[in-house]
Design a protein that fits this description.
The protein has 11 helices and 7 strands. It has about 300 residues and is of the alpha+beta class. The chain folds into 2 domains: about 70 residues, Arc Repressor Mutant, subunit A (Orthogonal Bundle); about 190 residues, 2-Layer Sandwich (Beta-Lactamase). The longest helix is centred in the N-terminal third of the chain and has 16 residues.
């Protein structure tokens, strides 16, 4: 949630870098590539720049290695250094690539107006995540409701917790059960708050509830003070096979809206994803979609 500048603290939480059990066996070039990509992710977090020492600590490398990686990214125009503060920042080159991708698929053209309407009608933060080919969700758009003095920061965290975000839960609920746990184990089940569900029985109950209701809920499971609901965007391809291609969520501060009040917006949310499924870019319908993305219903 938004706080006065003096009280705002940058989020430094990202998944641990050493997630690959075989990382120590990787060739130097591959490991350097992974570290470079990790640097881009780190630089995309928080509100300000990062010092060399902070980045080296996050990568668990010495400053000389971190500096070489940063110099390469600077030469490629993805990163710049503020000479006054000696901190590193992303340039707009990376966001330009993302906008090109969104423009190619026409996701921006098709969804902007619909999502903005939902944000204004609920008065809360509305976000769109799309399903990536590698069985991942990625946030791509966010709108905040008008006429609110207190807002949730739409960029407070880039990652999506599949057992903590309403968006993650409702996407998993669309997949065949055999695919759910490999994804959860790959991403990790670490608790982010005292309310995070990590037990298999509790998570499976959540997913079944999402299937039954057509939307999922998260009540301070990903971040204290924030609750959310989310619904899937499902389309049929030319073979009449149904897939989940994205998720829309509505999040609100707990101080403003109870869980029951937020869930009262579920019919409006489901009507929004139904509209989006009708106007979703045709590329998603005509291209071959991996069978692993078939919905369970």
């Amino acid at each position: 949630m938004d706080k006065p500048p003096a009280q705002r603290v940058r989020t430094r939480h990202l998944e641990p870098f050493a997630t690959d059990a075989n990382q120590g066996k990787l060739a130097g070039g591959v490991l350097s590539l992974r570290r470079g990509l990790r640097l881009l992710e780190l630089l995309g977090e928080g509100e300000g720049g990062w010092s060399l020492a902070e980045l080296a600590r996050q990568l668990e490398v010495n400053k000389a290695i971190a500096l070489r990686l940063l110099d390469e990214l600077r030469n490629a125009a993805y990163v710049y250094r503020d000479d006054l503060t000696q901190t590193y920042h992303l340039t707009y080159k990376l966001s330009n690539l993302g906008l090109r991708k969104l423009s190619q698929t026409r996701v921006l053209d098709q969804t902007n107006g619909v999502l903005r309407e939902l944000a204004n009608e609920t008065g809360e933060l509305v976000r769109l995540a799309v399903v990536e080919p590698e069985q991942r969700l990625t946030w791509v758009l966010a709108f905040t409701g008008a006429r609110r003095s207190l807002h949730i920061d739409p960029n407070y965290r880039l990652s999506i917790g599949y057992n903590t975000h309403a968006a993650g839960k409702v996407w998993l609920a669309q997949l065949p059960p055999a695919q759910v746990w490999p994804i959860l184990l790959r991403e990790g089940l670490d608790p982010l708050t005292p309310h995070t569900k990590t037990e298999r029985t509790a998570i499976e109950m959540d997913l079944q509830l999402a299937r039954d209701r057509g939307f999922a809920s998260s009540d301070e499971e990903n971040e204290l003070g924030v609750r959310a609901i989310a619904a899937p965007i499902c389309i049929s391809n030319i073979k009449d096979e149904r897939f989940c291609v994205g998720v829309v969520s509505v999040a609100a501060p707990t101080s403003r809206m109870s869980q029951a009040e937020l869930e009262a917006h579920a019919p409006l949310l489901k009507a929004t994803v139904a509209r989006l499924s009708e106007i979703w870019p045709m590329d998603f319908k005509t291209n071959a979609i991996p069978p692993s993305f078939k919905t369970t219903h």
